[in-house]
Specification:
Mean pLDDT of chain B: 94
Helix content of chain A: 25-40%
Low-confidence stretches of chain B: 1-11
Largest interface: A-B, 84 and 89 residues
Number of helices of chain A: 7
Number of strands of chain B: 0
Strand content of chain B: under 5%
Strand order of the largest sheet of chain A: 3-2-1-5-8
CATH architecture of chain B: Up-down Bundle
CATH topology of chain B: Cytochrome C Oxidase, Chain A
CATH architecture of one domain in chain A: Sandwich
Distance between the termini of chain A: 74 Å
Shape of chain A: elongated
Order of helices and strands of chain B: HHHHHHHHHHHHHHHH
Oligomer: heterodimer
Number of helices of chain B: 16
Radius of gyration of chain B: 23 Å
Structural class of chain A: alpha+beta
Number of domains of chain B: 1
Chain lengths: 314, 553
């Protein structure tokens, strides 16, 4: 029976983490070899009963101490830099990724594709495409762990976190929840299925979603009454949302924030928190009236408006 | 260090007019005389009973978990039960065994003896800490016995305030109360080491055990209040719905992690520094050599304590904390490893040209160095931010901290317990059984925890009641190792108890050691020294060229 020591490598990041692992293993093996050989040698040579020269010798203590202190520090800093470099790679998604939403809840993963396909505990992705997950939790903290991709990110209620990867191997791999989340934590597992782009297209169409994510968002936007104030020439004056996403927003208190997912989310749930310059706080909170998945749909809709120019300038 | 009074005479301390009563005899042998004793030696033994009880509770929980994990599906106990088991194991081991283990048992017993004092600075406060500790422990046991707690020892939010239906409040209260015991013990040690050293015992003549306990005490006093405050906030949120951590109430769950780890990472050093201190005592005594680089070993303890306050964010690399915070915490985590490395190198160099006696305490000390080296090196793996993303919250972390906490601290505790056993009880333990147990523990430990590094890298998350079938082989190894480890722990329990009645009587200094604690009879009289010793010599004045006859049971 062969014992696999490494999980499969399904992405470039996995390869880089494994390289770092090898580096750390080799350095540690060298240190262990040095310390344990010395210990073993001294134990054998200087055991009580052995007739050897034990006369104290004068060693340049300061020099020895400074040498091994600096040597350790130097080696440690190399690994620090290596780890930091990899971390940046993991944390900074390259541009141009396809975006998929993940909502964690006790004890399942709910996933929404931009095309409108939805799945639970399964994540289908095409080979070779950059994928960026936007994740949140509707209850406690979870963590979206893909061991074959060597990535993991906590999924935190009340905020959006992201995780990105580019699968370079076709197959089905583990999804584990790795932050303890209650009774069935160990059953909050699933599969990520990497398919060829053609198969992925087939899969998307077979899912027969009624609406894309943005279309569902638009429907909610009307049903929840957002459009009453934010669209056209409404009576109540509310900031226009066309062309908003990703742009800087000047606030009442002279601060300027970027209109990202977190800003949109906060503005829907806690409208009084950040008020756009020149407006008053007339908007009711939608906290408790909209689910995390619906919120992501509305945000997908607002993002789709991001490329449009504001229609209502006064 | 040697007490000499005066140096030219062969007898260092003039013989007392008649045999002094031992601390067992003076004050009586009644239960009341123990429960109301302010003698640091008796309180140390009271702590030994307490932590042995809590260790047993936590070990039973571990045994049940290892049994469950033999097979991949969760088929022995329910998920609720499993989650309660690892919570019992974690909370009890951390707060009711590891933190008080060396400081409150061995430290209590030997600190005044090592500095030539009659007791700790505040003997009644010392007794109060034992009562607080047990009161906290009883609350924890109540929580465990009447329903259990399922939050994990980390009490992550918002789970612990808004979602868990278990006895979170009682457990939190227990830890809160036990925290005051920690603070009082730390305070007592700090004042004692500052104010009550024997004449001539300057800071740089102190045994290294005291340097490490001193640093530990500073951490206890400075970090524990933060834990207490954090737990109060958890309780306030749970009881009154005050929005602090729960995002539904406008709180921030990541804030909880910052507060929790601000205490709990320094607490990791509370759980290893005392072990390092014990090892410095053992290595010098059983290699018959002064320690190599005394000042470096002493200041390494202080440096670990200091830098240890600035590394807490390394538990949170995937928590959504700022990328730049991660980079700073990652670097600080590498820095804190430097003084640990210094210690390992100095212990190794101390063996050079020594006269090495492989008695039981030395076997534990060598085991400590080996296991701590492996645990420490894998800590460097985890400090690498990009690497940590993959292994955090997996069995890799579980293996790492067990190498430090069990391979390090428990090994250090057992080494120290055997070393000072003749002093504490006045009896010698059976040496061959002692060596055998040390070996069994060493093997059992490695078979239990080494496979967990592998299965962790393969991706098995921690706190999993059921797991993917490909992880089974490693879990079976681990459980098999745990049975060996269990036997290893029962052995000392049996022969040490046996030795209380049947062990050979111990002379004052069976190991021919230099510490002041060996200058007084075994067991010591109530007030430790017939006359306050005066210290003139450097610590660890051993001479490897002289063959000494160590006295064994």
């Amino acid at each position: 029976m062969t014992l696999p020591i490494f999980p499969e490598e399904a992405s470039k990041i996995a390869e880089q983490t494994d390289n770092l692992y090898w580096g750390l293993l080799c350095a540690s093996a060298a240190v262990c070899l040095l310390v344990f050989t010395l210990m073993g040698y001294f134990l054998l040579k200087y055991r009580n009963g052995k007739n050897v020269d034990r006369k104290p010798v004068h060693l340049p203590e300061m020099k020895i101490e400074v040498t091994w202190t600096l040597a350790s520090l130097l080696i440690f800093m190399c690994f620090y830099a290596w780890g930091a470099k990899n971390y940046f790679l993991i944390e900074r998604p390259p541009p141009g990724a396809m975006e998929i939403d993940v909502v964690g809840k006790q004890w399942m993963w709910k996933i929404q594709h931009p095309e409108g396909n939805r799945e639970i505990d399964q994540l289908h992705v095409p080979l070779g495409r950059l994928v960026k997950l936007t994740m949140t939790s509707q209850d406690v903290i979870h963590s979206f762990f893909l061991p074959e991709f060597r990535i993991k990110q906590d999924v935190v209620p009340g905020r959006y976190t992201t995780e990105w990867f580019q699968a370079d191997k076709i197959g089905s791999f583990h999804i584990f929840c790795s932050e303890y989340c209650g009774t069935s934590h160990s059953r909050m597992v699933g599969n990520i299925v990497v398919m060829s782009p053609a198969d992925y297209q087939t899969w998307l169409t077979q899912g027969q979603p009624g609406n894309t994510l943005a279309q569902s968002g638009e429907r909610l936007f009307r049903e929840l009454g957002c459009s009453g104030c934010h669209v056209g020439k409404s009576v109540v004056r509310a900031p226009p949302l066309e062309g908003l996403f990703g742009k800087p927003v000047p606030l009442n208190n002279q601060e300027v924030v970027t209109a990202d997912e977190a800003y949109l989310r906060d503005s829907i749930l806690f409208p009084a928190k950040q008020i756009v310059g020149g407006y008053t706080n007339d908007m009711p909170s939608f906290s408790g009236k909209i689910s995390e998945e619906e919120l992501l749909q509305v945000i997908a809709y607002l993002k789709s408006l991001g490329s449009q120019t504001p229609v209502r300038e006064q | 260090m040697n007490a000499t009074l005066p140096q030219s005479e062969t007898r260092e301390i003039p013989p007392p007019p008649q045999r002094l009563l031992t601390y067992f005899e003076e004050g009586g042998r009644t239960i009341g005389s123990w429960l109301l004793s302010t003698d640091h030696k008796r309180i140390g033994i009271l702590y030994l009973y307490s932590i042995l009880f809590f260790f047993t509770v936590a070990a039973i929980a571990a045994a049940l978990m290892r049994m469950e994990l033999v097979t991949p599906p969760g088929d022995m106990v329910s998920s609720e039960t499993y989650n309660k088991l690892f919570t019992i194991h974690g909370t009890t081991m951390v707060w009711f065994f590891l933190i008080p283990s060396i400081p409150s048992v061995l430290g209590n017993f030997v600190v005044p003896l090592m500095i030539g004092a009659r007791d700790l600075a505040f003997p009644r406060l010392n007794l109060l800490s034992w009562y607080l500790f047990n009161f906290g422990g009883l609350l924890a046991i109540y929580a465990i016995a009447f329903g259990g707690v399922d939050t994990g020892w980390t009490f992550y939010e918002p789970y612990s305030s808004a979602f868990s239906n278990t006895h979170v409040l009682t457990m939190v209260a227990g830890i809160f109360v036990a925290g005051f015991s920690s603070i009082l013990t730390g305070l007592n040690f700090i004042v004692t080491i500052h104010k009550m050293r024997a004449p001539g015992l300057t800071w740089f003549k102190l045994p290294l055990f005291l340097w490490s306990l001193y640093t530990t005490s500073i951490i206890l006093v400075m970090a524990t209040p933060v834990l207490a405050m954090t737990l109060v906030l958890v309780a306030a949120e749970r009881i009154w719905g005050l929005g602090i951590f729960d995002p539904k109430l406008g709180g921030d769950p990541v804030l909880f992690q910052h507060l929790f780890w601000f205490y709990s990472h320094p607490a990791v050093y509370i759980m290893i520094l005392p072990g390092m201190g014990v090892v410095s005592e053992l290595v010098t005594c059983f290699a018959r050599k002064p320690i190599f680089g005394y000042h470096f070993v002493a200041f390494a303890s202080v440096a670990i304590g200091l830098i240890g306050f600035f590394v807490w964010g390394h538990h949170m690399f995937v928590s959504s904390q700022s990328v730049y915070a991660t980079l700073v915490f990652s670097m600080a985590s590498y820095l804190v490893a430097v003084p640990s490395a210094i210690k390992v190198f100095n212990w190794t160099m101390t063996l050079y040209r020594g006269r090495i006696y492989l008695d039981t305490p030395m076997l534990y000390a060598l085991g400590f160095i080996g296991l701590f080296t492996i645990g420490g090196l894998t800590g460097l793996f985890l400090a690498a931010a990009g690497f940590d993303v993959h292994v955090t919250d997996t069995y890799f972390v579980v293996a790492h901290f067990h190498y430090i906490m069990v391979g390090g601290m428990v090994t250090g505790f057992l080494g120290g317990l055997h070393y000072w056993w003749p002093k504490i009880t006045g009896r010698l333990y059976p040496e061959n059984l002692g060596r055998l147990a040390a070996l069994v523990i060493f093997i059992g430990f490695n078979v239990t925890f080494f496979p967990q590094y592998v299965v962790g890298y393969l991706g098995m998350p921690r706190r999993y009641h059921s797991y993917a079938p490909e992880f089974q082989v490693f879990n079976v190894m681990s459980s098999a190792g745990a049975s060996v480890l269990g036997v290893g722990y029962v052995l000392p329990l049996i022969y040490l108890i046996w030795s209380l009645k049947h062990g050979k009587k111990a002379p004052p200094n069976p190991w021919k050691a230099t510490g002041l604690e060996w200058q007084t009879p075994s067991p010591p009289p109530k007030h430790n020294f017939a006359q306050t010793p005066i210290v003139t010599r450097e610590p660890y004045q051993y001479s490897p060229e002289i063959q000494e006859e160590l006295i064994h049971g």
